[in-house]
Every structure is written in C-alpha cells, then in structure tokens.
C-alpha cells in the first residue's frame, strides 16, 4: 500500500529512529508518545510496538483504530532535507503470537539500533524482563499522508492519499464526529515543564480533527509559569487548530539511541486571537533511558519496572 508514496517519504519511514505515535482514548483525549517505527520499503503497514507491561498504546488503538504517526524528529536518521511526514492511518493490533513478536522485536531492534545491543541483558535474564521483551505490535495502514518536504510548518503540507486513485483533499471530507468539551479542572505544573523552550526548543502538539483522526505538528514552545500555560504560537499552516483536548510531547534521543528522554503534558488547547496556548491539566513522565550510568538508569526505572511486571502478569492471565 505504501509503494506508491514518493521515495523520500518511504525513506523517512525506514530511517527515522523515532516518530510520535498518537492514539485517542475513550474521552477523546489525544495521547502522543515517541516510538521506534519499523518499516520495509513497499510494505502495507508501518509498525510500532509496545511492551506487554505497558499495553496502553495497543489497547487504545484496539478500541479506536484511528491513529497517527508523525515523523518530525530526524536525529540519527542521516536525512538532511528536514522532511517531516504525518501519517493518519487505521491501526491493527498484532498479539496473536507473543513468542514470535518477542523474537521479531529482538531481531529488528538489533538491526535498526545496533549501538543499543550492549545495553540489553543476556538472553537468560530477559525472562526477568518479559514485561518489556514480550511485545505487542501495532500495524498502521496509511490512509492520508501530509508531507512538509523541508520541514517548514509555515507552509501548507502536500497531502497524499496512499490510494492514489482515491486522492482526497484533506481531513474534512470524512464524516464529522462531535468533539468532547475541554477537560477543564485543576491546572498541573511540573518543574520539567520549565525545560520547554530551552532543553526542548520545540515539542509535538497533538489534537483531534473533525473526522476523528489525530493531527500533529511540531511547534515552538514557551512556558508561561505565571499564567500556568504553555504558549505554542500561531500553529501550522494548513492544519487548523481546534480548541479542546490536546497533548504536548517533548522528547530527545542520542543519534544512536543509546539514551532517550521524554514526557508529555495533557490539557486544553485555547486560542487568543492568532496565538494558541496549552493549559496543562496533567503531567506524565515517560519510560526513559537518560544519559547516565546503567545503575542510575535501573534505579530510576525500578518502581516503574515493578508496575510493568504486575501489568504483564495480568495481561497474560487475561489472555489465558
């Protein structure tokens, strides 16, 4: 299905180390996390994966298969064009053979991220980390593709449908779905939000389009702690922003992916004239591997690992 897309788009799919994967939960809250995409040239789907111990990315796609993949952070890809690609697609969760998924992940991760090979424990010890190595795959079949050839969001994107004989002009031709009201509630402010604009000059803003698909754009971010909000500027050309629930995701990684860090802020997107801001209602830290010693990484993620282990046991019990 992707074989008819331009070669530079397919190259982005295969060479980007991360993309921002967005699902929509039952409250119509978009949730975006950085994931590693796996793609073979001309394949029908672009695949991403999550551990059995943290299956939310897969469970939400199963409940609502309208998802998106945004290729906006090209660090480590070797591509110099600055290309950014947003894919809106239909997701299918593949968890029929967890043993095969585990072997596939081990093989593909080693091929795509060879520098991380020494970071994995010996094979016998991986059983203790089955919550991580037992994988759920989400296969995304592209329905609509937005391309910024040079990454400039000030210009409208080229819009491509992967069915070239059924080209559609954009996101407004699908049946419209009613959008949820803003979440509202108490504002949430974390000290890491202050890293936006400095440690993270830009972040990925995700919101829901009228057709029910997620939309994403990489925007400049400026924290405004006195007003407890995050300014995101005028927004991208050609992708109309909409007031309501949104997610702002910040992440960085080494060119060889030997370290990575990320977090997200969920809240309400509000407009003030031509400018927009996110009013945060929830801060969520991600599963990170910062640039520090292996012992420090283990200590940092120990409590999360225990939680993921329990979740994996529950998931296996439910499947049995």
Question: Would you mind describing this structure in some detail?
Answer:
21% of the residues lie in helices and 34% in strands. It has 320 residues and is an alpha+beta fold. It has a single domain (2-319), classed as Electron Transport, Fmn-binding Protein, Chain A (Pnp Oxidase, Chain A). The relative contact order is 0.17.
Described by the principal axes of the CA atoms, the overall outline is globular
* Continuous helix count: 6
Global structural class: alpha+beta
Specify Rg, calculated over alpha carbons: 19 Å
Per DSSP, what share of the residues sits in E-state strands of 2 or more residues?
Answer: 25-35%
> Mean pLDDT, nearest integer?
88
Pick out the low-confidence regions: 162-173
User: What separation lies between the terminal Cα atoms?
Assistant: 34 Å
Q: What is the number of strand segments?
A: 14
The CATH homologous superfamily is named Electron Transport, Fmn-binding Protein, Chain A
The first-level CATH class is given as Mainly Beta
Layout of helices and strands:
Elements: H1 7-15, E1 19-24, E2 30-35, E3 46-51, H2 56-63, E4 66-71, E5 84-94, H3 98-112, H4 123-126, H5 130-133, E6 135-148, E7 158-160, E8 202-208, E9 214-220, E10 222-224, E11 229-233, E12 244-253, E13 260-272, E14 275-285, H6 294-319
Summarize the structure.
By secondary structure, this protein is an alpha+beta fold.
